[in-house]
Amino acid sequence: xxxxxxxxxxGWDFQVNAAIVLMLExxxxxxxxRVEGKKEDIELLLENKKYIYxxxxxVMRIDDYVNVRSKLRAGLETLNDDAMHxxxxxxxxxxxxxxxxNIENTMSAFYGRSRLSYNxxxxxxxxxxxxxxxxxxxxxxxxxxxxxxxxxFFTDDFLQRYRVIKDGIDKFLFELxxxxxxxxxxxxxxxxxxxxQNCTKGNLDLVIRKKDLMWSIIVLQSQLHPEHSLLEEYDxxxxxxxxxxxxxxxxxxxxxxxxxxxxxxxxxxFITDEKGNKKIAKFIAAKCNEYKNVFKLKExxxxxxxxxxxxxxxxxxxxxFLVNDIAKKVNL
Length: 332
Fold this sequence. Notes:
The protein is an alpha/beta fold. It folds into two domains: 7-186, no CATH class; 222-329, no CATH class. The chain is built from twelve helices and seven strands. A seven-stranded mixed beta sheet has the order 5-6-4-3-2-1-7. Helix 1 crosses helix 6 (184-199), helix 8 (236-252) crosses helix 11 (302-318) and helix 10 (276-292) packs across helix 11 (302-318).
């Protein structure tokens, strides 16, 4: 991801990270996300088929208030255009400026990470929005569905720039499952890459599904290490090849969450007198060849294929409680 200190690259960076924040804050409602979409900077398609539209405007310096009012004006005009044509649930203007209305005595209302509905704004800020709506005939904006968001996002120190975004992921993982703690930095990097790739694709129908974002958590929790029990009989060279093949397959599996669901459904339906790890081992032995046909294994040596598929099945079954937690808590 290009993070060079130019206005355009900084703006892209803010937009991508704002999309991650908005997605997490609406995670139970969201079905998919598009950055730089057909209509807006950020488009969240909800399960009820309505949209949350967000305009993202940034400034490079925390004390630069010169153009914040014009950025707000442009953002409201674009949101009005979308509201005219679409069935939306919420309209959001999101910025990194701690003074989005250029009114110094209202800055305390926007301190840190803030989310204010129109009704909760200081009166002087409401008046600015009212004047813009009146002067520009922005009659399609329903002020009861309008929100102003501020996400602190400054400096060339990336740890500090992304602090609020990482904290949001930390909080999400903490509430998700005990086993997902400590992976926020890795998950942030993966999601930043996914969202940045999304906003650079010319096909505006290409969206990021919530299911695929949650798959990233499963991947991080299912990392394969050389000391895995199924690798004991292989030499170092073979282990390296197995690990590479495993990573390739688990990262590139199509219909990823659907695949997990199918494995767990088959495991639940598998009839045996064995329990615990013995049941897992028996299921894997019985189903290995069947699942080998599901994967694209042409590029993997035949003698490696069995162990790779067995490990994938084992990892999925061992993580079944995490999968259930994700499905329940993010409404999959």
